[in-house]
Amino acid sequence: MEKDHGVRFTDEMYATKDDVKKALNMSNIDSIWNKVNMYRSYYAKQTGLNNIERVPFNIVLPPKLTNQIVSLEKKLSKLLIKYSKDYYQNSRITRVFENDRYLNILNILKDVYEIQIGEDSLKAIVEETLPTVPVEYLVLSNYYKTLRYFKSRSSGQFNLSLLMMIYTKLRGIDLDVTSLENYYRKTELIDRADHVFIGRHYDASPVDRIPDLMDALFEFNNNSQLFGIVKAFITYFYINYVKPFDYFNEEMAILMTKYCLAHFDNEDIASFIPLEELLHVHYQDYLRKMSFESEMKLDFTYIVKTLVEYLEEWVNELDEDISVFDSKMMYQELHQEDQVKETPKKVEVVPSTPYVYKEVKQESDVPSINFERKVSLPTMPVGLDENDASMVAQHLLELYPTLKKGQAEFYSRHCTLGKYYTIGMYKKENDCAYETARTSMDNLASLGFYKKENIRNKFVYTPNPLNRED
Asked: Is the pLDDT of residue 356 over 50?
């Protein structure tokens, strides 16, 4: 029984105590929870990092999570090889891909900060063609420059100098190497009287503990034998936990996570991974819950497992994007080879005679769409091609006046009963910001087109059968 509960609530899902109560529909689970913790202890590892009260954190790496991390690190390595090969073949074309990825990240930040900026201005920031950057765009420009700065400078040791170099780049200020600790936060964010009891939640570290806690994080990243991905995500948690700066703590947590991923053998692609999505409200509630569990249980596993699952999705999207980019490069190379092979021929120029174009009307051999209620669309045609899908989208817009064009077009191509679709798919196909994709999918769900479900801490959408008669 001990092992059964341990496997179920550790390997199958890394459950909190409340999760176990809900799963078993029991209020008192102390004996079961003790057995779960006993099973977890077999896979627990010390990290060398302490909490604010100097009590050590640990992490649990059971078989399923370990395999998940190993698989993810292998996938990142393959992506790095694939991308590096592209870069050395044609660095100019590869820069176009890089700019597109950075543009995606700036679009995410634009929505998070609610900055009104057009696509052309974002491109000018990425291509660095703006003569002067308007004040309201500086936060985007500084973030972009910070990403580009450490993309090729990720091999150094973790130390105070590195941290402050990244922080001052993000702030857009000069680094004073003679007084690095002066950049740490000087203002208390907590009332020390609230923490007279051991085991209380801290919103931030007391000011006098910041240097020691951050030095411990540097030591951890330099010497720990844990997986690079694990160290990166512990860094994300720890910076948000300590809050060492007056400004941009969440952004610094993301940037240092990216630096860790780059440092631990993913240097060329780490900056492209859209960890900035974590700044969205959509992620914040669940991240706070898992961070709170990690803090109070002194167990990094809650937050690490959550971030590993998010990273899997983003890496898969990046893999698809690089594959599409590979195809474009292959086409261009073949096209260039064909041009080289062509030899110039002598051409005899003869006067041309005028040609009168006549409009020839042809009867279409494409049958008209017969709307049948076969799948999840009101009067949905079977066997859609691209033209049919466009016609269906127009049909939906006429049936549902609150639908937007992008939503109708997405749904007309993603309406197979039993399949699941994601916000990331909408975002990619409509080339829009994450928040736009999320609200669009939620709108489709609210209108009854999709059923919204939460699977492995991620929202997915599956078509509902529609029975509207029109």
From this structure: no
Helix and strand tally (H, E) in the chain? 17, 5
Helix (H, G, I), strand (E, B) or coil at 453: strand
Cα 276 from Cα 261, distance rounded (Å): 14
pLDDT tens-place string over residues 185-219: 999 987 655 554 566 788 899 999 999 999 999 99
CA 131 – CA 169 distance, rounded (Å): 19
pLDDT for position 102: 93
Q: Are 380 and 417 in contact (CB under 8 A)?
A: no
Enter the tokens of residue 170: 């993000």
Q: Judge whether 232 and 283 are in contact, CB under 8 Å.
A: no
Compute how many other C-beta atoms are within 10 angstroms of the C-beta atom of residue 223: 9
Q: Which residues contact 225 (CB under 8 A, 6 or more apart)?
A: none
DSSP-assigned states of every residue in 309-368: HHHHHHHHHHHHHHHHHHHHHHHHHHHHHHHHH---------PPPP-----------SPP
- Cα(237)–Cα(403) distance, integer angstroms: 39
State the pTM of this model.
0.72
Structure tokens at 161: 């100098």
The three-state secondary structure class of 74 is helix
The radius of gyration of the chain's CA atoms, rounded to the nearest angstrom, is 27
pLDDT digits (tens, 9 = 90+) for 211-263: 999 999 999 999 999 999 999 999 999 999 999 999 999 999 999 999 999 99
Nearest in space to 159 (alpha carbons), one of 214, 226, 223, 230: 214
The answer to whether 61 and 43 are in contact (CB under 8 A) is yes
pLDDT at 466: 66
Above 60 in pLDDT, residue 450?
Answer: yes
